[in-house]
Amino acid sequence: MPDYAAPGVYVEEQPITPTIVGVGTSTAGLIGEVADNVTMPELPDGSGDYVVAAMHEPVLVTNFDQFKRHFGDFQAGNGTLAHSVYGFFNNGGSACWVARVADLDDDNEVKEVLVAFEAIDEIAIVAAPGALDAAVQLALIEHCDQASLQDRFAILDGQQATTVTVADIKGTLASTSDYAAMYFPFVQVSDPITGDLIFIPPSGLMAGVYARVDATRGVHKAPANVPLRGALGLQYQTSKNEQALVNKQGINVIRRLNGSILVWGARTLGSGTAGRIEYINVRRLMNFLRESIDEGTQNAVFEPNSNPLWATITRSVTAFLTRVWRDGALFGTQPEQAFFVRCDESTNPPDVRDAGMVVTEIGVAPVKPAEFVIFRIAQFAEIPAA
Predict the structure, then answer these.
(1) Which residues have C-beta within 8 Å of that of residue 353, sequence separation ≥ 6?
(2) Domain span including residue 308
(3) The domain that contains 344 carries what CATH number?
(4) Which pLDDT value is given to residue 27?
(5) pTM as predicted
(6) Adjacency order of strands within the sheet including 59-61
(7) Residue-by-residue DSSP string for 281-342
(8) Are 242 and 160 found together in one domain?
(9) How confident is the model at residue 333 (pLDDT cuts 50, 70, 90)?
């Protein structure tokens, strides 16, 4: 620090508190069957046709025309995936990574795509429209639930049941993960090739609904009581009493109400299970907070692991959570009711510092004031404390 004893102009460097920026929450990873022999559109110069995307390799798609250039237009060889991607964009989605498989019931093939998805950090929603096999659905859940990620959410399709019971809709899937949600029933859309009305799984459309609600209201708002664009009907008309039977078990029903096809539920598969987060928006908000703070405090690895670093992290995280609270995502009339941040000697005792880690404990109130959900962020500090 300069000595201010003598008159003059002084220059003093002040450390800048890093600003934490919220990560994206609406980019989807979609998996579906596409045959090798699908008809591909002609190249603009007329020299031939586009080549179908390689098997198991994700392709970034930001509109349906791009999808057609990689996977073909609506046809028998890609029907479910094409309708699902179209429904994703029609319902508000803006970007998705799409990968094709030969057999959607082959969990090993789907797992190969999920490994490729791991390297794409922006993916926040995962679905395999039409995948009803329990092993495949479990692979999607485990992908989102694994400790190295935990920043993704799986959207599953319920079985094509003709009776509304948990067993009929879930099939043999036994998961109670709060990193996934299931939707029922299949929805009716128009096939632009044949003009027929067909039923398709809802997960691709729901991924678009998530993106729409994120963009218009925020990730902390439930993706429910919103219309499903492009849906003309439902494969099963669920009654209010039938919905009550399955809703608490994490099955979200799509219903026709007042002439509209509406998403009428926002529960995770962990609903009703002790220690699990019950609501989709709360789980996805926690994913958003965890990843945003984790990415926004990466600079800690270049700083000495001591009081100045702890104070910087505390200021950065507090400023970020204050903005989140002001946006209405956390409950409480005062910030201290909405969240707390602890990064000091209590979270960083000598054994933690000796291991090269700096640990921040964070509590947030996404449901009730002062009722905190607590999580920890650990960064590896490259420079030990002096």
Answers:
(1) 305, 381, 384, 385
(2) 304-380
(3) 3.30.360
(4) 99
(5) 0.93
(6) 59-61, 96-101, 28-33, 125-127, 153-157, 180-184, 251-257, 260-264, 226-227
(7) HHHHHHHHHHHHHHHHTGGGGGSBSSHHHHHHHHHHHHHHHHHHHHTT-S--SSHHHHEEEE
(8) yes
(9) very high
Does residue 10 lie in a domain region? no
Statement to judge: residues 196 and 56 lie in one domain: yes
Please, where are the H alpha helices in 19-172? 64-71, 79-90, 107-118, 134-145, 166-170
**Does a structural domain hold residue 1?**
no
pLDDT tens digit sequence for 167-218: 999 999 999 999 999 999 999 999 998 899 999 999 999 999 999 999 999 9
Rounded mean pLDDT, 284-289: 98
How do residues 110-158 score in pLDDT, each as one tens digit? 999 999 999 999 999 999 999 999 999 999 999 999 978 889 999 999 9
Each residue of 116-148: b (16+ CB within 10 Å) or e? ebeeeeebbbbbbbbbbbbebbbbbbbbbbeee
| Two tokens, residue 4 | 């201010």
Q: List the structure tokens of 376.
A: 């920890």
CA–CA gap between residue 26 and residue 124 (Å, rounded):
6
Distance between start and end Cα atoms, the chain: 19
Q: Span 230-250, mean pLDDT? A: 94
Q: How many domains does the chain have?
A: 2
Confidence of residue 1 (pLDDT cuts 50, 70, 90): low
